[in-house]
């Protein structure tokens, strides 16, 4: 390259860099399109409000945007992220602190695209990568409910705890372009209406993948629909392991019938399991309120997701446990009265440990967590559970817990493997006992 051409080349490179910078600036600050942008907000009638309340139940909005001792949807729940703590926002119709000044288009952009009216990007702790699949009518219904069915609360939003420069929001626009759904759910050809309704709920408002799908390095869900085998294949999150919802016979729903799945979501229990961990909040505030038709649709869709024999291992078969194995005596003294000496359980509120997905999963966080801290109260149809798993953090040492769980996870044909002492110690330090109080959050 001659000296005469060098300035010209550098000028072209500088121009190219400016164009790229301008394009990036446009992309990260642009207002996402909304089908409601050109429409005047129509009057809201009670039918839309009732529909919106049901959609909010399916989406479990109350679980994040309410506190047990607070006003409905006034925000304040702290969520710990890899970058730092953030707080759920006020989504009541208060005009100063909530969404009272939002138009329908503003609301749509926040829910389906994660962008506020002033252009701020929401952290994807808000499951808008899934909510992007919401239908226009369900967005309209949600807007009606939060505008007219919820009382305004003048409660300021707590500032986040993510330090600068990690709290800069513009990179989230790039994250969204890579990892968020881009359009509402479209029915899949060749599947019936029930299957498509189930797929819509699971992939969209139900945002089941937020807990049950493993995350990538960018904290993105590795799949947003059933076209990829990682979707709903199980994930570690907040000290619990959300199990596979695919047809894996050992660690998933392979041995569950459609009726048993629907019954679990409606009543909190079936012959295989009782809800526990973070699923308790989802049951107490969401799934039990869904219609029987929607629960049947969810079950139909989930049963269509194939398992992975390479991941799941050989199908479980019951085997007798060794009475002299380490941890067997602790099990006999502390656990057998509820779960049975043979591990088969004692009725539907005292579930089996033999063949349970938590006993078969390679991840042992759920087994440790519930043994240390006990179970949150399950409230079905307004009635708290008669039996709940107690906390053993005061009664058993780390070594005793590791030994008894290693026994459970290797007895009766279980394939979960031994629990290490250090894993128990770590979760003991990071977690707290479950509340003994029944907690059902109010919607109004």
TrEMBL record:
Pfam (any one): Cytochrom_C
Subcellular location: Cell membrane
Binding site for heme c 1: 61, 64-65
Entry cofactors: heme c
Signal sequence interval, chain numbering: none
GO cellular component, one term: plasma membrane
Molecular function terms, GO-annotated: electron transfer activity; heme binding; iron ion binding; oxidoreductase activity, acting on CH-OH group of donors
Binding site for heme c 2: 208, 211-212
Keywords linked to the UniProt accession: Cell membrane, Electron transport, Heme, Iron, Membrane, Metal-binding, Repeat, Signal, Transport
InterPro entries: Cyt_c-like_dom, Cyt_c-like_dom_sf, Cyt_C_IC, Cytochrome_c-type_DH, Membr-bd_ADH_cyt_c
Binding site for heme c 3: 335, 338-339
Key word Membrane present: yes
Cofactor note: Binds 3 heme c groups covalently per subunit.
Protein name in the entry: Cytochrome c, mono- and diheme variants
